[in-house]
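input
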Amino acid sequence: MAYLKGIKFIGGLGDVTAYTMKGSDKIILRRKGGASRSRIKNDARFDVLRRYGTELGGCSVLGKAIRIMFGPHRALADQNLCPVLNQYLLPVQRLDTTHELGRRSIRLSQMPQLLAGFSLSKKISLFESTIRSAITARIDREALSAHLDVPELLPGINFHPLEDQPMYSVTAVLGIVPDAAYDEQQEKYVVSPWFDTMYAPVMVSTAWLPSGVRADATTLAVSLPRRPSAAEFSLMLSVGIRYGMFLGDGTVQQARRVGAAKVLAMG
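output
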């Protein structure tokens, strides 16, 4: 992979394409080449490649639903989550031995713990390096609820916030994640039919707290108002730490793209 330095442009130039990628401030160069899009789409010799491409598209469909269920924690991500989530979902898809290649389902509900620990940051340990004492969680699948226990936070001991951020808040988001399968009539991957915009993630948080002051242990409780009509779903509890600063009117404004978040538990 090549990078531009000094000269900057985006787009195609001859047989080279320049583009940017979320999470990097560099301009990436890629040489054009390979089979044409039309040939890949129609040539029988590319049938297996098309099937793998279809399945990757299915992972992206489910990955979109997962990203929605991160709710406000998406603002704490410092990388493009789509390809990272695909790396987690492709192994789930390969477990489907019932359907043929290109039609295999993604039954995350059969092994939801696969996503536990998933980091929204490029630096996987960013959250743990900020809050160094364990945050424990309890998920009640029947009640569609979760409880998250945040320990006492002692700056410089088990709590290491960013030095230039005066305020922080610990947040928890509970969301419901569907499965995904190939729909023969629509000829594409779709998420479970019960899943719609009514299934929104719910967030709870501590108050805004000064970063340099000890904070008491606390418990955050969160629940979802609506149960799916099918049993094939996963509950996803993510935890985050966001930063902010006081405004002139006494309110706190959250800092953009600053903080950390991860999937704490699945159920």
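quick obs: Residues 2-31 form one domain.
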